[in-house]
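Sample pair:
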Amino acid sequence: MTPPTVPPSGPQQPNAHQPSAAVQVLWAKSGQKSEGEGWLPVLHHLLDVGACAQAILEREPPSTRALLAADFGTDTDTALRWTCALSALHDLGKASPAFQHKAEGLARQVWQVLPWQDHSAATPHGTVTQVLLPGLLAEHGWTSAASQRVAARIAQAIGCHHGQRDTRDRVPDRGTGEEWKAVQNELLTLVLQAFGLQDAPPPPIQSWSGEAFMRLAGLTSFADWVGSSFVLEGEPDPLPFRDPAAYLEQKLIQARAELDRIGWTVRQPLAPELRTPDETFAYLPSFAARPLQTLLAELLNVPSDRPALVLVEAPMGEGKTEAALYAHLQLQRAAGHRGLYVALPTQATGNAMYGRLRTFLGHQVTAGGGEAVTVDLQLLHGGAAMQGTYQADLERTAQAAARPNTQAPARSAEEQRLFPLPNEQKLTDEAESVRAAEWFSHRKRALLSEYGVGTVDQALLGVLNVNHQFVRLWGLGNRVVVLDEVHAYDTYTTQLIHALCRWLRALNSSVVLMSATLPDQTRRDLLNAWGVTPDAPPCYPRLTVARLGDAAPISRHIPGPRRNVKLRLRPLDPEVATLAAQAVTLAAQGGTVAVIVNTVQRAQQVFVAVRKLLGDRFQSMYQGSRHPERIGVHLYHARYPADERLDREERTLRYLGKQPATYTKKGAVHTEDMRPERFILIATQVAEQSLDFDADVMISDLAPIDLLLQRAGRLHRHAANEGRRGAHCIPTLYVAGLADWPKAALDAHKWKYIYAPALLYRSWYALQGRDTVALPDDLDLLVQRVYDPLCPALEGLTDDQERTLRCADRELNSLRRTHITTGGQAHIGEPDTFLELPVQPSRGEPEGEPVQDDPAATAGEEADEPRLGTRLGDESLRIVPLHRYDTVYLDAKGRETAQVATLRRDNWDLARKIYARSLQISRHDVIAALKANPTVRGNEHRGWAAHPLLRDAEPLELVNGEILLGKTRLRLDLELGLVYERLE
């Protein structure tokens, strides 16, 4: 390999650059480590990435470019030049002995022109960039104290492109001799020349904000990922050494083509002409705008381009989701936002929302007469590989990209610049206009996609100290972010949500927060996080809007008419046998019964008891279907393998969702009315939030009042079912544990480990003496009473009950204080203090969304580190039940081997099948036993340990369907899921 020969450039220009021998031999990529053949000089890679940054920003909305202009304190054109040039300099640290020694053949030619150093303590090249850049910029005019402070922070932003910033002032092995310094300065000069900045003064700014850091760091990593995908093409082009600006223009064409390939299109308003809510949602049968939707549209219909916080507190059935989607259309047009992310509490709710958002986007794209535009939609959560619609969208998008478009003419460079859209055909099919590009399905890249739906955890990773958190924040910046069910989180996660809101505000995003109702203190905290003074809340239901920069919000009562439901309230003994008998009795009268309990074990026990009571009248709704003479029974909780859990979720909605239902059976799509005449659903909290199902009568364990009423919101939910509710024309809620002071039930049924006892005692008290609950009229009153931060004494309790309550109150307040402190320490800091805080080591890439009864707490890589992730909870582990016969099989019939130690890294088909059989557990004795005797899962090249989808999955080898771990027997049952049996 030889350095490129610089050809004569004709008559020499007065300021023409004469490249040194050193700059021509420094390498950034080689055929040994990258796709293609040959090698790539450092200068080429810097300019490639700078071109990608420029191509990305061309497709950003004007508002993004205006934010960069504010960051640099210059006009937009100058700010874009500095942004792209600085992004290009991210790998300046590769011009050092620390990096150059890594490819022996290429290093030999470097050592011929630059002094060799010992490389035993090689430093990451990103860290070298962070250390070198401020001093080099000083030689180009960045000499003032303010300029040097800004330069240091910019160096951190571009140097942390491999995941983490470094604040060390000195690093070993970085090449500080005069020869190295000269070539590093030469590279800087050539990059500045390429962007027309060789004579430019430093930006006239005194400081560099946290949000400016996130914008530059996120863009740099994104551009680096795109630029690093350029295939090596043999010996390098000598052009950039002679004319870097000309080379940059060439690479812009390649960068635009690469963005076309991965699906990064121009960011433009989804609705060029804003229609009314009725017109926007005309695709929904019988849609008519609700008062909430009309009021929110009016409050946002003002001549302002400022982002907004929207806080919606309204009961189920008010149309909160459609209101949020329409608000997105308004804010996207007014504030120039570039997309939408909808964050939900669970994977199940994320799956359900994916279909709704997909339909919405498809209809908006095609509503304007078939304009040539497609949008990308990603599903973001740990189980996305199992969501059928999303996986089909990925496959369809990949197939469409692989098909040559023979009708589309070749596009010139100027057409690429002016019209950076990869699709020019007319679109008439809503499904075809919504794609899911594979490039963005990677977990670190997913929030770069224009539209997304998933768990709140994926957004919260942006404010945790994990690798590339700044990419996530850049993806969420200048966007509309919707957080649904914000009441569903504990104090710790709520602190992270506050931090996220502060960062989104700083990054010019709008935020829509939705909840059935919120404790008053929670509402005040959320408004404070947005930087406005909380106002006195109007009557429930209410709507609050706060524009960026406003001192106080605008709050309004949401007028009627609305659906009012008076629930009949009945106490029930909490014993399993009582619940089962009551469920059977109610189902025998006709209609659908929902039984929602607080733990998986209790759900399994109720199912077994119901099955025994029914005898020949029992009909499994998982293994069978409706039977005219039997009572269908369906169990749904989190402790099933992923594919079975998804199937059970789909069946829950098939039988109890809106009718007619559309489902797939044996490969054929069916649409018919599937609501059973007599049916019992037995479920845990996974059925509590955002699943749109309708029950005729409900039995529920005692729970905190907001969650209990959230469950009750599934009673008589769909008006179309009136007249077919059997004997249950009056919506009735049976509450197990409501009859007597619930301390014994909390102990016996382990509810005290699921919910704070103080909240259960106060919820129990709030419902005493009531025969009915009016929804939504009583909803806010009951919630404020239970969550009163003053914890008032309750009249009529016995002395023993008062002592128990006071003790529980103290425990809850202590836990809240701990969670506030822990949550405050877990995140990266505030936008205005982030860069002042000491840099903490990364906690790696925590994973895990809640599986409710088996909470999956996110964790760091080090076992002795505190488990500070997006949620607090017990340690969790992803397991894959396998079946041992002569070898280990994935299925109970022994048809497909699990290949635990031999799976190839490129065998994604089998990896997905294996992942489909996985589930997360949090039982501590089981996890301890598995960790004490880990299974050999291959190595870094083969086996589960090598595959990205399975590297954290632990095999669980079953013999005859069970295994004994310590004193706990685990059994996988087709109906019950994973069953624990403690042996005394």
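The mean pLDDT is 89.
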